[in-house]
Design brief:
45% strand, mainly beta, 33 strands, 420 residues, single chain, 2 helices, five-stranded mixed sheet, four-stranded antiparallel sheet
């Protein structure tokens, strides 16, 4: 009887937890584009429009110049920035925005396409990993910011940083930190998370500006990278090349992260009037074979993702389509994946970036706005818009009911929880 009562109590606790989660689910955002690097959050209980007086700003913390996004884990928000001397990794207290620590990692970075670091830190366990504008990969202790190791990746592997700066956000798989390298001899490489030593090197060709992502496609979990030459897949443990697909874009501007469409296929997309393709992977011995099953190229393309990674919701893809060669016109589009039909297109929506949660798109714009759009194929429906900062390129981070955004001056925390 005692055992029966104990089991009953456990079931009651689990049912209560599930019931609570059905009302409000929350989670951290430990890396670029969230936990799965898809730009999609499972959080619920979120706001559907901004209050009449505007978004509820919880705090603003002054920092400095950066294109780095924000990772949120364990009650802290991590990002990068620079002042007139150094690039830094910084940890902020999520509750009040106060600085917990900052650690210099490299000298200030200057580039004609914008100064400062570009990549977003990645949190894994009690370490946070960062990649500077010139390609220095470093590990820090999340507790106090102690620098554990650093390695100049392009120099170590005989390469050079991408022309517009290193934008690859590290991905951590078990005890390996994987990045694009800047070396023509080895396009991507894995480093030991504890020591920074090279574990493996793979692929060839110049770096692009995308970040690798772990996927399970065609029944095989592996890393998918989008370099200047195109897309490829490698085993995360060994770096063995499993497949590759050529997709060179002008100025090496392959930037958006590949997006998994279904268990066997994925999408890659680029701006500069290049367009998109969907690849189906199938087993071929110990490797995988990519087959192009859909493409939308050139000036009439349905999707030319410049630097914004599309998101998927209920069988539809939502993305930002940039018309022209790095031109000023960006359209917000909804594409039905079953037949690749464009369901709607908001012409000249504007330069922006996006994530998805609870059937809503949360966007930031280069005009400093935060926008909420209904993620529905029925038509474009804007739910809220407010200007709260200066220009930004980074998508929001969403963690535990709060949106984190930034510009070149501040990190801002917004309460995105629905009213009780």
């Amino acid at each position: 009887m005692a055992e029966y009562l104990a089991v009953s109590r456990l079931l009651m606790v689990l049912m209560t937890a599930l019931a609570a989660c059905s009302q409000v689910c929350s989670d951290d955002w430990p890396q670029f584009l969230g936990a799965a690097r898809t730009g999609v959050s499972q959080e619920t209980g979120l706001i559907s429009s901004w209050p009449a007086e505007g978004p509820k700003i919880v705090w603003r913390t002054p920092l400095g110049v950066s294109m780095s996004g924000i990772a949120v884990s364990g009650g802290r928000a991590f990002t990068m920035f620079q002042d007139d001397t150094n690039q830094y990794v910084v940890a902020l207290n999520v509750a009040d925005g106060k600085e917990v620590w900052r650690t210099p990692v490299a000298p200030m970075y200057v580039n004609s396409m914008g100064n400062g670091p570009r990549a977003t830190p990645t949190v894994s366990g009690d370490h946070v990993f960062a990649f500077t504008g010139e390609g220095i990969l470093a590990a820090f202790r999340t507790l106090d910011g102690k620098l554990l190791w650093s390695v100049d990746v392009p120099k170590t592997l005989g390469g050079a940083a991408a022309e517009y700066g290193v934008s690859c956000s590290p991905v951590v798989v078990e005890n390996r930190v994987v990045v694009q390298t800047g070396s023509n001899a080895f396009a991507i490489a894995a480093f030991d998370a504890s020591s920074g030593k090279v574990v493996w090197k793979s692929g060839t060709g110049k770096s692009g500006y995308s970040s690798p992502v772990l996927m399970s496609v065609a029944g095989k979990e592996h890393l998918v990278a989008f370099t200047a030459a195109g897309a490829s897949g490698v085993e995360s443990a060994s770096g063995k090349l499993l497949w590759e697909f050529p997709f060179p874009t002008e100025y090496d501007c392959n930037i958006a992260v590949p997006v998994q469409i279904d268990p066997d296929s994925l999408l890659i997309s680029a701006g500069e009037n290049h367009g998109s393709v969907i690849l189906r992977l199938s087993a071929e011995g110990d490797s995988l074979k990519p087959e192009e099953i859909w493409s939308s190229p050139g000036r009439t393309s349905q999707l030319r993702a410049e630097w914004q990674t599309p998101v998927i919701h209920d069988g539809h893809l939502y993305g930002l389509d940039n018309a022209g060669s790095a031109g000023p016109i960006t359209n917000l589009v909804c594409i039905r994946l079953s037949d690749r039909k464009t369901m709607w297109q908001k012409i000249r929506f504007g330069k922006s970036n996006l994530i998805l949660a609870e059937g809503k798109l949360f966007l930031t714009t280069m005009n400093g706005e935060v926008i909420i759009v209904d993620a529905s194929p029925a038509g474009f429906k804007e739910l809220g818009r407010a200007t709260i900062m200066e220009t930004t390129r980074q998508a929001p981070a969403l963690a535990n009911g709060f949106l984190f955004v930034r510009d070149d001056k501040e990190v801002i925390c917004i309460d995105a929880r629905a009213a009780n």
